[in-house]
Amino acid sequence: MGMKKIFAAFMLVFLIMTTALSAASCSQSAPELDEVKDRIVYLIEESREINVLFFGKGLPVYDRESILAEELGVYYNDKYTSYNRVLEGSGYLSADHMKKEAERIYSEEYLKAIYETAFDGFLTGSSSAYIRFYETEEWLFQNREATDFNLSERVYDYSTIEIVTPSSDKYINITIESYSIDNPTKREKISLGFTFERGNWYLDTPTY
User: Is residue 6 predicted with pLDDT exceeding 90?
Assistant: First the structure.
C-alpha cells in the first residue's frame, strides 16, 4: 500500500474516532437524582434569603420620619431622596457581601440579570426604575421605591423531585411540587434549572 493510501486510511480512522468521541462528550447523560438531590434541596432552601434581598422587602432601613434617624442625622444633606440608609444590624453592609452570598447559590448567567438591577444600573434621586442598592465609602443605601414582589413563603415537596429532559451532565431540569404557605391546598408542579459550573451545581432559575 502506498504512503498516500496509508495516510488516507489513517486520517479516516482518526476522523471516525474523533467524531465518536465528540458525539459521546456531547451526549453525556444527566446525573442520577440521588447524586444531586442534597445539592438541589440546599440551593432551593438557601435561595429564600436571596429572594427577599433582591426581589422582596430587601434590608431593614432607617425610617426617614423616625426620631432615631433625625437624632443621628442619617438623612442630613440628603442627596438621593429615593434611597434609604440600611441599618447597621441588617447583616449586609456592602454590595460585595451580598454578591458573595448570591454566588453561593446562583449560576453566573443568572446573576448577571440580578446584578444589573441591583447594583449595575445608574443612580437617580427620583425614579424607582434604577438600581436597588448603592453604597458610599461609609454606608449602604436601598431604593425605597424598588418593586417589592410581596413574596409569600413557598413550601417544596422534595419527595416529588424528578429530573426531566432535556438534561445533561452540565445542565439539569427538574420538576417539583410546591405551594404557597398562604394557600396550601393549591399545589402546583413547577420547573427549575441547574447549571454545573465552578465544580458544582448552581440554580439557574428563580425559586420565588
Answer: no
Q: Are 87 and 69 in contact (CB under 8 A)?
A: no
Domain spans of the chain, in order of start: 58-143, 151-203
Q: Exposed, middle or buried by CB within 10 Å (0-12, 13-18, 19+), for 31?
A: middle
Say what the pTM is: 0.79
How far, in Å, CA of 56 to CA of 207, rounded? 12
Q: Is the pLDDT of residue 73 over 70?
A: yes
Q: Is the dihedral of CA 105, 109, 112, 118 positive or negative?
A: negative
Q: For residue range 25-38, list pLDDT tens digits in order.
A: 445 899 999 999 99
Residue 168 scores a pLDDT above 90? yes
**Is the sign of the CA dihedral 45, 51, 56, 57 positive or negative?**
positive
Residue type at position 134: Y
Angle at the Cα of 131 from the Cα atoms of 203 and 193, rounded to 5 degrees? 10
Query: Is pLDDT at 145 greater than 90 in this prediction?
Result: no
- Residues belonging to the chain: 208
CA 192 to CA 173: how far, in whole Å? 6
Q: Is residue 60 reached through a cis peptide bond, with omega within 30 degrees of 0 on the bond before it?
A: no
Question: Cα separation of 101 and 111, whole Å?
Answer: 11
Sign of the Cα torsion 46, 93, 85, 83 reads negative
Burial zone of 90 (CB within 10 Å; 0-12 exposed, 13-18 middle, 19+ buried): middle
pLDDT, residue 27, reads: 52
